[in-house]
Amino acid sequence: MQKFPMTAEGLAKLEEELRHLKSEERPAIIRAIAEARAHGDLSENAEYHAARERQSFIEGRIGELESIIPSVEVIDVSKITGNQVRFGARVTIVDEETEKETTYRIVGQYEADMKTGSISLSSPLAKALMGKTVGDSVEVPAPGGARAVEITAVAYS
Fold it and tell me: How many angstroms from the chain centroid is the CA of residue 29?
C-alpha cells in the first residue's frame, strides 16, 4: 500500500472533513432527497435531481477520504531542524528577476492549498527546492519559461 506523507494538521483536517460529511452533510442530503421525493413526479423534479447529484458528490468524497486516511504517514515537522529544504519546511524565496518575495510550506499532496501558501511535495517548485539550502539559487520550471529564485529562509514549525 502506498503511503502519503502528511503533517499532523493536514491529517486532522481530513479527519474533520470526513466526520462533517458523515454526521452532518449525509443526513441533511437524505432529508433533502426525501423532501424532494414527496413533491411527486421525479422525472421533472429539479430539486430531487440536484439533491441526488449532491449525494453522489458527498458519497464519492467520503469514499476518497476513507481510502486516503489509512494510507497517511504523519511526519512530525517539529522534530526537523536545519536550513536544508525538506518536507514540512516553510521556504522563503525571492524571484531574482522581479525581486518578489514569497513563502511556501512544502506539504503532502492531499493538504496542498495555494490559498494558504502550501505546495505539494510533488509540485515542480517543491521538487526544485528539495535538498537546497539558504543562499542557493534554483532554476524553477514555469509555464512561461524557467525562473531563477533564491532561497532566503528555511524554517520548520
Answer: 25
- 58 and 121 in a single domain? The answer is no
Same domain, 32 and 68: yes
Dihedral of CA 72/73/74/77: which sign?
negative
Angle at 27 between CA 56 and CA 31, to 5 degrees: 90
Q: For residue 145, what are the CA distances in angstroms to 76, 140, 141?
A: 35, 9, 6
pTM of the full structure: 0.80
Beta-sheet strands, E only, within 72-130 = 72-74, 90-95, 101-107, 118-120
pLDDT tens-digit map of 24-52: 999 999 998 888 888 776 677 788 888 99
